[in-house]
From TrEMBL:
<dbReference type="InterPro" id="IPR005475">
    <property type="entry name" value="Transketolase-like_Pyr-bd"/>
</dbReference>
<dbReference type="GO" id="GO:0019288">
    <property type="term" value="P:isopentenyl diphosphate biosynthetic process, methylerythritol 4-phosphate pathway"/>
</dbReference>
<dbReference type="Pfam" id="PF02780">
    <property type="entry name" value="Transketolase_C"/>
</dbReference>
<keyword id="KW-0414">Isoprene biosynthesis</keyword>
<feature type="binding site">
    <location>
        <position position="367"/>
    </location>
    <ligand>
        <name>thiamine diphosphate</name>
    </ligand>
</feature>
<feature type="binding site">
    <location>
        <position position="176"/>
    </location>
    <ligand>
        <name>Mg(2+)</name>
    </ligand>
</feature>
<feature type="binding site">
    <location>
        <position position="146"/>
    </location>
    <ligand>
        <name>Mg(2+)</name>
    </ligand>
</feature>
<dbReference type="GO" id="GO:0009228">
    <property type="term" value="P:thiamine biosynthetic process"/>
</dbReference>
<dbReference type="GO" id="GO:0030976">
    <property type="term" value="F:thiamine pyrophosphate binding"/>
</dbReference>
<dbReference type="InterPro" id="IPR009014">
    <property type="entry name" value="Transketo_C/PFOR_II"/>
</dbReference>
<comment type="function">
    <text>Catalyzes the acyloin condensation reaction between C atoms 2 and 3 of pyruvate and glyceraldehyde 3-phosphate to yield 1-deoxy-D-xylulose-5-phosphate (DXP).</text>
</comment>
<dbReference type="Pfam" id="PF02779">
    <property type="entry name" value="Transket_pyr"/>
</dbReference>
<keyword id="KW-0784">Thiamine biosynthesis</keyword>
<protein>
    <recommendedName>
        <fullName>1-deoxy-D-xylulose-5-phosphate synthase</fullName>
        <ecNumber>2.2.1.7</ecNumber>
    </recommendedName>
</protein>
<comment type="subunit">
    <text>Homodimer.</text>
</comment>
<dbReference type="GO" id="GO:0016114">
    <property type="term" value="P:terpenoid biosynthetic process"/>
</dbReference>
<keyword id="KW-0479">Metal-binding</keyword>
Length: 637
């Protein structure tokens, strides 16, 4: 029997002899590689925290000592050591283990939100609660990556934490020098200076062998290092950065030396007040195909062949079309610049960056900064394109509203992964943007239905110079192009029907709307299908079109509340057009992880379900009209 299968609880990890830990680490790596090869997921980040997580559970008493993960994508090892090894094969599958911490799964899990740079704020609050409750024998442990440390919230929290010498808090900085790609910014270069310095191996050895003597407070640590080894005098240890914040610092520690990490954590635990333990790890450690993967160290690979490391080919995606079109636009428009928040490849901007490196800005995991910096770039006469995942725009809403839109700046925000994403759980779905964006004055929003429209609408968006624009599209494979059969104002008519139902298809929902229209025909219900292309502001031609139909059905891959459907209803109400509007969208609740297609089917966003629901709505409408004919005068055609 292997060691891992004997681990049912962190206590079992504590009971192991030190000599058993390398074997445990090897078993864990084998399980990580073999499982993620089938399920996909965050292999690189988790291979980098095997020894670190073992040490955490040997030193602290989870859940009494809460272990909090920033972003949460690197918590697979934590799950394996907290009684979920048997279920690990269900990772990221519907009904199986989440790819992030899950409170429903375990008392050892706390933070479910996958949005980065939040952990120190949770930890600040939780540690304060322990102090207030007199629970001074409990320690909060917060694990944050070097990438997540580039997010502003992390520094807001550090500013608060540094002011409290009594907080029972240990911050473990998991420094692998990478976000997806190499981490950027002044902080990163400071942290990475350590790696580049010749003697850093010596520093690791030195700190490890003298941890008992090396005081943790900044200055003495620095002097000690100086005193011990003249040759290391120019070692740049980042303790200065944290020391300036008044935080105790232990490190840097070799994050793959379990004994050294354990010793450092025990030492840190012995101190009152917040302590930083700086751990150097390698993303993908222990699996050569991940270690040597040049793009992102297998940050989040597709299913792959374990022997060759060959990933399942990714389908031609919306992101590919966006990336290609940006290179073309970049050639024609030298004022167009691009901004990414630490996701150059995942958002498709890598080709633009290669072609126009001076016009590409990676701001780190800092979406708020990205938007306001974009406003500054626009002040300077440029037209920035900010590419982020739809769900991450949520945290930069005020910057879009007050820094970009208030000044009517020509910034184009491209929202990839808009709508249901699925595998990454509730906090990754892009199901809020169409609701949030409705309230931004002067902002225009486009929702392409296919690749051809994405190219068209992106080109239109970057030509709009009197205010911000948004172009949003979903994750994954592109649908086939659907050509219009006519126009209604600026809207594309995809299918001309009679006066029964006007189907307003938002973006990629066009496909299921056309399917539904065909099925409705069989029910004797004739549907006209239109694609607005620009869903904000809505085309006034919609008023006339709606008034000629018995029912308007708006279909959107967004939460049902406050999205395009509600905007259409408001438009018709304001125009005194008394035609009922039905919105078919994503229920306004947090959706458990599952495949995108499965979730869309579960929430009724399929052609069949639409046809059934619209048939029922038309029947209800007929009953109302028959029972109260006087109430509703239906305009003649
Ligand atoms: C607000 C936000 N923006 C972007 C992301 C996408 N994202 C997921 S993991 C990751 C990199 C995190 O880097 P780091 O904290 O260093 O962890 P590592 O993967 O290196 O272990 C990013 C950018 C996110 N989760 N949250
Ligand atoms: C953890 C995180 O935010 C991303 O790595 C997320 O997994 C995005 O995955 P995709 O890029 O596959 O949509
Ligand atoms: Mg990192």
């Amino acid at each position: 029997m292997g060691i891992l299968e004997t681990i049912k609880d962190p206590l079992d990890v504590k009971r192991l002899e030190a000599g058993q830990l390398p074997a445990l680490a090897e078993e864990i790596r084998d399980v990580l590689v073999s499982t993620v090869a089938k399920t996909a997921g965050h292999l690189g980040p988790n291979l980098g925290v095997v020894e670190l997580t073992i040490a955490l559970h040997r030193v602290f008493d989870s859940p009494r000592d809460p272990i909090l993960f920033d972003t949460g994508h690197q918590s697979y090892v934590h799950k394996l050591l907290t009684g979920r090894a048997e279920r690990f094969g269900t990772l990221r599958q519907e009904g199986g283990l989440s790819g992030y911490p899950s409170r429903a799964e375990s008392e050892h899990d706390f933070i479910e939100n996958s949005h980065a740079s939040t952990v120190l704020s949770y930890a600040d609050g939780l540690a304060k609660a322990f102090v207030l409750g007199g629970e001074t024998d409990r320690t909060v442990v917060a694990l944050i990556g070097d990438g997540a440390l580039t997010g502003g919230m992390a520094w807001e929290a550090l500013n608060n934490i540094a002011g409290r010498k009594d907080l029972p808090l240990i911050i473990v900085v998991n420094d692998n020098g990478r976000s997806y790609s190499p981490t950027i910014g002044g902080l990163a270069s400071h942290l990475s200076s350590l790696r580049m310095t010749q003697g850093y191996e010596h520093v690791l050895e030195l700190v490890k062998n003298n941890l008992g003597r090396v005081p943790v407070v900044g200055t003495p640590l620095y002097d000690t290092l100086h005193g011990m080894k003249k040759g290391l005098k120019d070692i740049l240890t980042p303790q200065a950065m944290f020391e300036d914040l008044g935080l105790k610092y232990v490190g840097p520690i070799d994050g793959h030396d379990e004994g050294a990490v354990e010793a450092a954590l025990r030492r840190a635990r012995g101190f009152r007040g917040p302590v930083i333990v700086h751990v150097l790890t390698r993303k993908g450690n222990g699996y050569a195909h991940a270690e040597n993967h040049d793009e992102d160290c297998f940050h989040s690979p597709q299913p792959f062949d374990v022997e060759t490391g060959e990933e399942r080919p990714r389908p031609h995606s919306w992101t590919n079309v966006f990336g290609d079109e940006m290179v073309k636009i970049g050639a024609e428009r030298t004022d167009v610049v691009a901004i990414t928040a630490a996701m150059l490849h995942p958002t498709g901007l890598a080709a633009f960056a290669e072609a126009y490196p001076d016009r590409t800005y990676d701001v780190g995991i800092a979406e708020q900064h990205a938007l306001t910096s974009a406003a500054g770039l626009a002040f300077g006469g440029l037209h920035p394109v900010v590419a982020v995942y739809a769900t991450f725009l949520n945290r930069a809403f005020d910057q879009l509203l007050m820094d970009v839109a208030l000044h009517r700046q020509p910034v184009t925000v491209v929202l990839d992964r808009a709508g249901v994403t699925g595998d990454d759980g509730p906090s990754h779905n892009g199901m809020w943007d169409l609701s949030l964006l409705q309230v931004v004055p002067g902002l225009s929003v486009a929702a392409p239905r296919d690749g051809a429209r994405l190219r068209e609408l992106l080109a239109e968006a970057v030509r709009i110079e009197d205010g911000p624009t948004v172009v949003r599209f979903p994750k994954g494979a592109l649908p086939a192009d659907v050509d219009a059969v006519g126009k209604l104002g600026e809207m594309d008519v995809l299918r001309a029907g009679d006066a029964d139902v006007l189907l307003v298809a938002v973006g990629p929902m066009a496909e299921i709307c056309l399917e539904a229209a065909t099925l409705l025909d069989a029910q004797g219900i004739s549907a006209t299908v239109v694609d607005p292309r620009w869903v904000k502001p809505l085309d006034k031609a919609l008023v006339l079109a709606a008034s000629a139909h018995r029912l308007v059905a708006v279909v959107e891959d967004n939460g049902r509340v406050g999205g395009v459907g509600d905007a259409v209803a408001r438009l018709l109400r304001d125009a005194d057009v008394d035609v009922p509007v039905r919105t078919y969208g994503v229920p306004q609740r947090f959706l458990d992880h599952a495949k995108r297609a499965k979730i869309l089917s579960d929430v009724g966003l399929t052609g069949q379900d639409l046809a059934r629901q619209i048939t029922e709505a038309v029947a209800r409408r007929s009953q109302v009209m028959e029972s109260h004919p006087a109430r509703l005068v239906h305009p003649t055609d």
